[in-house]
Each structure stands twice: as C-alpha cells, then as structure tokens.
C-alpha cells in the first residue's frame, strides 16, 4: 500500500470518522455484536464513546450570567503604564493582544429577554503571551455584598421563587434589607442606568481592586474601567417593555449587526491607582467593593482600547463553554473577601463542562 496516498491531506480533511483520540472509525452505523442479534460487546469503543459524547453534549447553563453574547477582537495599549506593571501585554503603546469578550445579564436563564433590569456582565479574556488573563467585570463599578459567603443567598433571593418560578420583589427586599451595604449598587440598578440600551453602549468595571506589580516589585492598587466610545445609552422602563416585546435578543442582535456592518464596538480602558503606602489617607477603604474611588481625587488614567471585530462562528454550544477564570500572576486580587470567594468559586466550575 502506498502510505503517502492513504495519508489524510490535512488534519481537517480526514476521509475517516475519528474517535476523540483521533483514531479512525471504520463503521459508524452498526454496533459490534457477538451474533447478528447481539449481545453487543463492551469492547465496541466507538459505540461507548459515541453514546457518552451524545449524553453529555449539553453543557449545563451558568448558574448566574447564563444569558449572554460574545465577540472577538483586540486590545491595544495606547498609553505607557510600564512604570506600574511588568505585565507583558501592557509593556508599551502599540502592543495588541487578541481578546474575546462575553456580555451577559445575571439572574435569568439562557433564553431570557435582554431588556430586564439586572446588572450586566462584561468579561474580557486577554490571550496574552504569558497566558490568559480574564478581567471579569460588571457594568456597575460596585457590588451588592462584601463577603462572598453571602453570594449564593443573594443569588437565591434574586432568582425566581423555586415554588412558583416567578421572581418576587418581597424575596429580594427581604434579603437586601439586612444588607445595607447593597444600597450603593441599588442606586445604579434602579437609576436610569438599570437597563442598558445594548451591550455596545454600556460601561464596564473590574469592580474588585487588583494589584499591579512593576519590574522592581512595587505594588499599586488598581481599579479598571471600560468606557464605550459611542457613549452610554440606556432604556427607560417603557422603552424596555417595547423593545423586549418585539425582540428578546435585541442586544445580541445589535452586537452582531454592528460588527457585520463594520461599525466595530470600541471601549477605552482607564485605570485608577492608589499606592498601598497611602491607603490610610482616604476616608473610605480602597478595598471595599461597595465603594467607588472618587475620580476628582483619583483621576482616570488612559491605558488602551478594546475593539470587537468578529462575531463567533462556532456553535452556541461552544460559546456556552467559554469559561472565565480569575488568576494571573502579575495582576493579583487584593485582600478582599468578594475576590477570594470568586477565586475559590472559579476552579469549581470546571466540572460544569467548561474547563
Ligand atoms: C462574591 C463572590 C462571587 C462569586 C461566588 C461568583 C460566582 C460566579 C459564578 C458561579 C459564575 C458562573 C460562571 C460559569 O458557570 O461559567 C460567575 C460568573 C460571572 N461573574 Fe461572578 N461571582 C462573584 C462575584 C462577582 C463579581 C464581584 C463580579 C463583577 C466584577 C462578577 C462577575 C461575573 C461575570 C461577568 C460572570 C460571567 C462570566 C461569563 O460571561 O462567563 N462576579 N460568578
């Protein structure tokens, strides 16, 4: 046999079905049996693998942030912050890094309307030369709670009542009335900002305080902020009812349509920094996730721009398997209870099938 002729012309153009391992499958139609009517042999590896793959081909949806849309693009450094960080992807103006971004709502399920009053997720995965860095943020700069111990209870209060499957205000207010620290985030949620017009017109924030470390080992506390170049736009209650009534995927559609039309969504990245040696100078705790850092005393410093240029060509299933983690060596979480809880929560998600 001429082995050259029988070699597949490319890894993606094999004339055979292949097993997960890449081994060729000669028969994809009949099980391996002892006789014409069975029994089936356990050594029929392909049958076992095919059924196992099929049985698991649905990835359970995220417990929060299930409803979302993703797009790819790049991040480009526009301002030199190398005095603050040794991160390779922030090393100099002009450096570009590929990214994937996932926007989401938080509480309701995968098929829920995108017009609900709910915080929005703004998660950016930077594919840096030093490994992936996931900057997992929200559209509001503060969080409801400080201690991640309360996160499951908070989410359960916000989720529909398990008995009726209806979201009930009394359950939400019952929980949050015991947590006055949540009031700041509520002022965003129930303000005109509570329903973003779409994903393109909303801000993003890292929320947690991170630490940037420079080449000399000096640390700075940092907050990350994304500002859309097309401005912030939101829907009023009546507008949201109208938009949601005619298209429950309007924000996903807007993202896809604007990229397809070459109207690439863009955000500028800004940081605010505090030297940890000076943290006592403020009348608020810079590590308190329910507080913002006043921009008049801690001005926004430009860093770069994020441009989305490609929608995802992979299936919805693949999109749902996009997983955001929270670790990278040069950007550390500071000692905040919410951030530690997120760190602990992150690897526990791998069994969900995302990995
Ligand atoms: C307080 C502790 C927290 C816990 C225990 C927690 C837990 C989780 C969990 C379980 C998921 C689902 C992930 C998946 O199944 O793939 C998730 C997603 C997410 N979380 Fe948190 N979270 C916390 C705090 C935060 C904070 C403070 C923010 C905002 C900065 C945030 C933003 C997000 C976003 C944007 C996603 C969706 C990421 C995506 O699009 O896949 N979380 N979180």
Automatic annotation (TrEMBL):
Belongs to the catalase family. Gene3D superfamilies: Catalase core domain. InterPro entries: Catalase (IPR018028), Catalase_AS (IPR024708), Catalase_core (IPR011614), Catalase_sf (IPR020835). Keywords: Hydrogen peroxide, Oxidoreductase, Peroxidase. PROSITE patterns: CATALASE_2, CATALASE_3. PANTHER family: CATALASE (PTHR11465), CATALASE-2 (PTHR11465:SF23). Its cofactor is heme. Its EC number is 1.11.1.6. GO terms for molecular function: catalase activity; heme binding. This is catalase. Residues 18-354 form the Catalase core domain. One of its GO terms (biological process) is hydrogen peroxide catabolic process. Transmembrane segments: none annotated. One of its GO terms (cellular component) is plasma membrane.
């Amino acid at each position: 046999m001429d082995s050259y002729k029988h070699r597949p012309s490319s890894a993606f153009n094999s004339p055979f079905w292949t097993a997960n391992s890449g081994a060729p499958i000669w028969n994809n139609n009949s099980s391996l049996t002892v006789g014409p009517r069975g029994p089936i042999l356990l050594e029929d590896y392909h049958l076992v693998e095919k059924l196992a793959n099929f049985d698991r081909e649905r990835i359970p949806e995220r417990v929060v942030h299930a409803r979302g849309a993703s797009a790819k693009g790049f991040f480009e450094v526009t301002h030199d912050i190398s005095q603050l960080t040794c991160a390779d992807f922030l090393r100099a103006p002009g450096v570009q890094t590929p990214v994937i971004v996932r926007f989401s709502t938080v509480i309701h399920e995968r098929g829920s309307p995108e017009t609900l009053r709910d915080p929005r997720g703004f998660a950016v995965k930077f594919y840096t030369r030093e490994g992936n860095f996931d900057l997992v943020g929200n559209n509001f700069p503060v969080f409801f709670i400080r201690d991640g111990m309360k996160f499951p209870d908070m989410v359960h209060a916000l989720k529909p009542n398990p008995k009726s499957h209806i979201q009930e205000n009394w359950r939400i207010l019952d929980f949050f009335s015991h947590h006055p620290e949540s009031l700041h985030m509520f002022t965003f949620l129930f303000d005109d900002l509570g329903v973003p017009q779409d994903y393109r017109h909303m801000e993003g924030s890292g929320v947690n305080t991170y630490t940037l470390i420079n080449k000399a080992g000096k640390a700075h506390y940092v907050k990350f902020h994304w500002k859309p170049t097309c401005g912030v736009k939101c829907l009023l209650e009546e507008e949201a009812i109208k938009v949601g009534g005619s298209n429950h995927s309007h924000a996903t559609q807007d993202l896809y349509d604007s990229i397809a039309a070459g109207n690439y969504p863009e955000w500028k990245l800004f940081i605010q920094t505090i030297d940890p040696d000076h943290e006592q100078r403020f009348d608020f705790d810079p590590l308190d996730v329910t507080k913002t850092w006043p921009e008049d005393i801690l001005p926004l410093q430009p860093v770069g721009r994020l441009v989305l240029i490609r929608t995802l060509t992979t299936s919805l299933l693949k999109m749902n398997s996009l997983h955001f983690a929270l670790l990278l060596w040069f950007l550390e979480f500071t000692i905040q209870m919410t951030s530690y809880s997120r760190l602990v929560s992150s690897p526990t998600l791998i069994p969900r099938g995302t990995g």
